[in-house]
Specification:
The chain is an alpha/beta fold and about 450 residues long. Helices cover about 45% and strands about 10% of the residues. It is built from 15 helices and 12 strands. A 7-stranded mixed beta sheet has the order 2-8-7-6-5-3-4, sandwiched between helices. Strands 9-12-11 form a 3-stranded antiparallel beta sheet. A two-stranded parallel ribbon has the order 1-10. Helix 7 links the parallel strand 5 and strand 6. It is globular and about 65 Å long. It starts with 15 loop residues before the first helix and ends with a helix. About 50% of the residues are buried. It binds pyridoxal-5'-phosphate. The site of pyridoxal-5'-phosphate (PLP) has 13 residues, from helix 4. Its cofactor is pyridoxal 5'-phosphate.
């Protein structure tokens, strides 16, 4: 049979995050109990005014401007200007149906090979490869998978040059999915300086930036709205994480007001006009409220951060207690432990990769997690990386949509005001992890 899809498209598969969801649904249909730590979908109840604004706009059916509704671009510009302490004009903002298509478009239109920290969110690598670009991993500290150093940047760059390609794009994501790490100001300075010296466009994916456990780090960003053409930094963000509205599909990019920034912005607008036209109108109208700096929204963002900090912190402490190698998350809602301290036991069980380990956990312990290999970890690389799993806390709050709205607002409020809260699904997850480690400890060596 002749090829139906081209050779680049043939390499695409369903994203591992969505695949694990399907596996969990199947196991549950078979009556199995599965604790879902595999999917990073924020599930808190949507802030009431934002929800109301979406309902009120449901009869708005016209296409909006390609770049997004002006008031929404103004709201996004002013929110980020406040957070970062820089000037941002609404004209620098482009709104899209999620930040994912914007990232996809940016990898597609920008020139040159790509540098990505290892590990990185599951979708960047397929997006880069689909844009027919070469990807070079920038190694992070092998023990906690956190820090990027100048030497790791130079070594990834050197590798690309030795293979005859020039990196012109780099992406960083802080707080990071999967590690929960927040880059320090000095680390960001190192990355920016490196990108400037090598004429690399830097994309900073800040979709988790509100969920920083140390309030003072919320404004730490590579984006400075500079009009200096020797550096080009593009910021992306959206509605999916802080506002628990992933399905409404609202994301944005902010471009620098420099000549290069303008060229990229205009090109992505032309791309958008031929591809998605505009983001959903009711969702855009509701987002004007979401990104506002009103007292109600600031307090909502605070409560969301407090609850993620509490739950993610508890899971991190439990994993540490169980003897796993795990870095302390500084933001987001993920932990990224390595089971490498139990490498001998895993070997006895015939488990040699993070995918084997993730399959064993779902089969034997009813725990769904994502393997490190989905984030670029090398199955033939160092031990730490081979046994890493990403665990998401976002499904540990409610069992149903009804519970989400009946209990969610009170839970957010209680956590923010420091009251005692009960998270039975978190306790259950910790117990299942204790049992899994007990199983490993009981393997005869
Ligand atoms: C690091 C990161 N960037 C971007 C996205 C995309 O979010 P959206 O397309 O919903 O804006 C996600 C979603 O999981 C993510 O984890």
């Amino acid at each position: 049979m002749a090829n139906v899809v081209n050779s680049t498209a043939a390499k695409l598969h369903i994203s591992p995050t969505l695949e694990i969801n399907e596996l969990v649904s199947k196991a549950r249909e078979q009556g199995k109990h599965v604790i879902h730590l595999g999917f990073g979908e924020a599930t808190f109840p949507i802030q009431q005014d934002v929800l109301q604004a979406h309902q009120d706009a449901s009869n708005e059916t016209s296409y909006m401007p390609v770049a997004g509704i002006e008031n929404l671009r103004a709201s996004i510009a002013s929110f980020n200007a406040d957070r970062l302490g820089v000037k941002i004009s609404p004209d620098q903002v482009v709104v899209a149906p999620g930040s994912k298509p914007l990232l996809f478009g940016l990898f597609d239109i920008l020139d040159g090979a790509v540098l990505l920290p290892r590990p990185s969110w599951v979708s960047y690598e397929p997006q880069v490869l689909h844009a027919r670009k070469r990807l070079f991993w920038v190694e992070t500290d092998p023990v906690d998978r956190h820090t990027i150093t100048e030497s790791s940047l130079l070594s990834a760059h050197q590798k690309a040059i030795s293979e005859g390609v020039i990196p012109r794009i780099m992406l960083i994501n802080s707080p990071s999915n999967p590690t929960g790490h927040v880059f320090s100001a000095s680390c960001i300075r190192t990355i920016k300086e490196f990108c400037r010296s090598k004429e690399i466009v830097l994309i900073t994916d800040e979709i988790y930036s509100d969920i920083c456990f140390d309030e003072s780090q919320k404004g730490t960003s590579a984006f400075d709205s500079s009009n200096d053409d020797t550096e080009t930094v593009i910021l992306t963000g959206g509605l999916s994480k802080t506002y628990s509205a992933g399905g409404w599909r609202i994301g944005y990019a902010i471009f620098p007001p420099s000549e290069k920034g303008e060229i990229i912005r205009k090109t992505i607008l032309a791309y958008a006009s031929e591809c998605w036209s505009a983001a959903s109108t009711p969702a855009q109208l509701a987002s004007i409220k979401a990104f506002s700096t009103s007292e109600a929204m600031c307090s909502y963002r605070k409560s969301v951060t407090a609850l993620h900090r509490y739950c993610t912190g508890k899971l991190y402490s439990a994993l540490k207690e169980l003897g796993l190698d795990v870095g302390q998350p500084g933001g987001g809602f993920y932990v990224y432990p390595s089971f490498s301290p139990y490498a001998a036991q895993l070997d006895k069980l015939g488990i040699s990769t993070s995918a084997d380990l993730s399959a064993w956990l779902i089969r034997e312990c009813g725990l769904a997690t994502l393997p490190g290999s989905a984030f670029g970890e090398d199955d033939d690389g160092p031990l730490h990386g081979r046994f890493r799993l990403r665990m998401s806390t976002s499904y540990l709050y409610f069992q149903s949509e009804i519970e989400r709205y009946e209990k969610g607002y009170a839970l957010l409020e209680s956590c923010a005001s420091g009251k005692d809260i009960q998270l039975p699904y978190l306790e259950e997850a910790i117990e299942a992890l204790e049992n899994a480690v007990q199983k490993l400890k009981s393997v005869r060596l």
